[in-house]
Amino acid sequence: MSAMLSIRDLRKTYDGGFQALKGVTLEIREGEIIALLGPNGAGKTTLISTVCGITTPTSGKVTVGGHDILTDFRAARALIGLVPQEVSLEPFEKVIKTVRFSRGLFGHRRDEALIEKILRRLSLWDKRNAQIKELSGGMKRRVLIAKALAHEPRVLFLDEPTAGVDVELRKDMWGIVADLKADGVTIILTTHYIEEAEAIADRIGVINGGELLLVEDKDRLMTRLGKKRIEVHLSEPLDAIPPALAQPGLSLEGEGDVLMFEYDTQAERTGITKLLNDIAGAGLVLRDLSTRQSSLEEIFVDLVTEGRS
């Protein structure tokens, strides 16, 4: 299947020599959700702005649905919906007129049934005649999404869409994104909320310093880079790890009553069996046993830290 969005060796250098993008290459399939993670200044917004035609690339090639963003700009841009990070709406305009206007900007005929469908999906129908200034911050973000969907784009960019909204509303938006994916919309999400990427993305891209450190299937990334820990809770605390138990990856934690063992889930032998046998051989009594896998946040921090070193 050909990529809905193809980015090849994309570079952006601003006046003064600052390189915001350093040869980014990325292909995104139709109906896929990809989350771009990265610290402030990593290049996430510059990447989105460049693909959407807000910023002109220094070099490289980008196509959307096969249309080049420079030589076939109108066709490419017509396929894109953008929900910007900053809320910028006319405060005295009504919700429904704001969304209608966005559709008209792309030369589409008026379609009241579609506008109603979008507003209902985003729980905005009851607010359709309210002025923007009367809405809460979360509702304003929903209006931004409605505006972006009004011309029926096939690629949707969400630049920090849930920043500043409460947890309940954030999860509502995750549901909306899942519905869009079901309709075949390709979604590129930038977020500071690691759990957001973990909850809804198909693939994770980590960007830092204008470079993509990796792009990988979310579950595969968790398996490949995620380390697993086994916590052995002892009936009696220890002053130190007995010499017979000492091995790489084993530490004594808590109040001396927890043995923490970190192991590689991909290794041929994890060392768990040996550890449990050694514990029994040392005469230690287990009170409880549990395992925990590294979260995406821990993986992300490790990757960015490695990229800086």
UniProtKB/TrEMBL annotation:
Gene3D superfamilies assigned to the protein according to its UniProt record, in alphabetical order:
P-loop containing nucleotide triphosphate hydrolases
Q: Name one GO molecular function term.
A: ATP hydrolysis activity
Q: ABC transporter domain: which residues?
A: 5-234
Q: Which PROSITE patterns match?
A: ABC_TRANSPORTER_1, ABC_TRANSPORTER_2
Q: Name one Pfam family in it.
A: ABC_tran
Q: Which UniProt keywords apply?
A: ATP-binding, Nucleotide-binding, Transport
Q: Which SUPFAM superfamilies match?
A: P-loop containing nucleoside triphosphate hydrolases (SSF52540)
Q: What is this protein called?
A: ABC transporter ATP-binding protein
